[in-house]
Amino acid sequence: MSSTPFSKQLKTAVFSALLVVAVAYPVLGLKLTTVGINLEVHGASATTLWIIAAAALLMFIWQLVRERIPLPRRTRSTGALPITRVGARLTEPATQRWLILGLVCVALIWPFFGSRGAVDIATLILIYVMLGLGLNIVVGLAGLLDLGYVGFYAVGAYSYALLSHYYGLGFWICLPIAGMMAALFGFLLGFPVLRLRGDYLAIVTLGFGEIIRILLRNLTSITGGPNGISGIDKPTLFGLSLDRRAPEGMQTFHEFFGIAYNSNHKVIFLYLIALLLVLLTLFVINRLLRMPIGRAWEALREDEIACRALGLNPTLIKLSAFTLGACFAGFAGSFFAARQGLVSPESFTFIESAIILAIVVLGGMGSQLGVILAAIVMILLPELMREFSEYRMLMFGALMVLMMIWRPQGLLPMQRPHLELRK
Amino acid sequence: MSQPILQAKGLTMRFGGLLAVNGVNITVSEKQVVSLIGPNGAGKTTVFNCLTGFYQPSGGEILLRGEPIHGLPGHRIARKGVVRTFQNVRLFKEMTAVENLLVAQHRHLNTSFLAGLLKTPAFRRREAEAMEFALHWLEQVNLTEFANRSAGNLAYGQQRRLEIARCMMTRPQLLMLDEPAAGLNPRETEDLKTLIGLLRDKHDVTVLLIEHDMHLVMSISDHIVVINQGTPLADGTPEQIRNNPDVIKAYLGEA
Fold first, then answer.
1. How far is Cα A308 from Cα B54, in angstroms, rounded to an integer?
2. Where residue B129 sits, what CATH number does that domain have?
3. What is the pTM of this model?
4. Residue B17's pLDDT is what?
5. Does B69 lie in the same domain as B183?
6. How far is Cα B55 from Cα A239, in angstroms, rounded to an integer?
């Protein structure tokens, strides 16, 4: 097994150990400062230094002996763990349906007992679930790499913000408008660019996302530039405001029902709206998957030429995926604007696109339950680890790398629906 | 002889300086099996690509029942009933066999967005019919038991058969098979022959075939077109082709 010569192993081991030391310094926040002609290490206690040294030593030894320890070798050819039976059961569409049903029940009930902060974070997670599910159509099903998804999110958010700011329209009217606006943008962008494929498409969509953001920042007269638009109305419950004091001509929720004002109500209400939107998204996507168009998306991802030979119009199919994906981003965007009460171009940077894409990839392309889980992980982890906020990105990266090594197919990969044959 | 379903006149395809196909004429009559043969690199697949709209021919015209179809994009030609298979199998490998067949019926299904979202009765009925039709063809090609197996996991011969079944889903008038027997064992080739005969006789499909297996070609074809280095060499019944000195020379080299 150890076919590599010892000298080479030694070299690798030394190099790895040095790498550990080099990486450990910035990660643990040590600073090298020149004092006179000497270099001094600052910001470190003796223990930290010892830990680094120990880690380096461990790495050195590990690199030397790892070839000799007979580890249970996995078959590398498939590049994936064989899916265990429990895993397979979990990813079956029928099981997923029950799991989702269970999750929905829990999701409906818990906010009434949960803390305000938790509900707020859950709302944020739901926004990302919606975005992930939308992008899942484009990337996971149709196989179009879209790096500018946040652009449509921004279009949705600003649609509501502008309509509310200038025309005083309410959330419920603006929600479909925002979705349609985003869909329109998706359609307009998709029309010229969808003849591109793979990397080229990724670059163009990346550019699109940035253009939207920069446009929003520089159209100062309309969008307020970098300051964004603030004071956006919150959603109402059939015309009842959930604020402490209702604006002219409206009634507040607590007055109507004659209960004491509780600021938690507003948070829970927002959460429930988000949940409703997510459920709607889930329902639509589930149906889409079983519709001809859903199958056509997947077929297109697999083999565009074969699709053409069978009389499917690739441009139209791609365009529908792109437009629908954008539409869901628009919904999510308008809800985001309503929740924040403030939109600014800085909410729609490239990193948002990257996070949404990461959710899709992490969850398993095409798998809806996977996307939900991944969204929870991706949003909750940084929130839970606020104390280590400086290492957040590092953990993020590590998580990605580990996932790609151990489960390249995602947390819960998609499984094909089993079509019952009639005899 | 019945009326021609497909006619290619003076078909020419030029890639830069290379004249890949030069003035090829093909006439395919209804309910016939026509074979296109020729040595490797003769331009047979290029002819196929021109006929199905994957290439825009540089010259000549293609008529489908008298209607010009050259210059149309591939999916439009396919919708007119000219459907092809590929030299290297092009199935949707991650999808199951039956899903492959359903995708191919896309055009015949209710693709309305709302109908699908609401699962209207009309939508369900269409889906059920599509399923029925897919099952019928799975039976025809002996793949019923593999219906829910992903297409990529089928054996090679089964994949070939599935590809033909998938073409049949589009209710084609003209089925174009690009080397369907490549990589099949003798028994599978024999099955294929039966299948092609069945398509012609029972399902009224016209078949245009590229094939290297001369035994298959000679036994099943009604008509054979030979091309060599992009130019037409001979044209006739299997008997005529078998005895044509030019064809023998092209295949075996000068004696």
1. 9
2. 3.40.50.300
3. 0.79
4. 86
5. yes
6. 60
Tally the domains of chain B.
2
Q: Per the CB < 8 Å rule, is B74 touching A309?
A: yes
Tell whether B5 and B120 lie within a shared domain: no
In CATH terms, the fold of domain A86-406 is ABC transporter involved in vitamin B12 uptake, BtuC (1.10.3470)
pLDDT tens-digit readout, A47-97: 777 888 888 888 888 877 776 665 554 444 444 444 455 656 666 667 767
* Contact of A30 with A44, CB cutoff 8 Å: yes
Q: Is B208 on the interface with A (CB under 8 A)?
A: no
Contact A295 B107 (CB under 8 A): no
Which residue ranges make up each domain of chain A?
Answer: 6-65, 86-406
- Residues of chain A with pLDDT > 70, as a percent, come to 83
Residue A207, CA distances (Å) to A126, A201, A212 in order = 27, 10, 9
Is the domain of B94 the same as that of B23? no
B20 touches chain A (CB under 8 A): no
Residues of B in contact with A306 (CB under 8 A): 86, 90-92
User: Does the beta carbon of A291 lie under 8 angstroms from any beta carbon of chain B?
Assistant: yes
- pLDDT tens, residue by residue, B218-240: 999 999 999 988 888 888 898 88
Same domain, B15 and B76: yes
Instruction: Give the tokens for residue A54.
Output: 């120990």
> What percent of the residues of chain A are helix, what percent strand, and what percent coil, each to the nearest 5?
70, 5, 25
Q: Which residues contact B212 (CB under 8 A, 6 or more apart)?
A: B37, B179, B181, B182
Q: What is the reported pLDDT for A335?
A: 94
Q: Between chains, do B75 and A416 touch, taking CB under 8 Å as contact?
A: no
- For residues B180 and B247, membership in a common domain is answered with yes
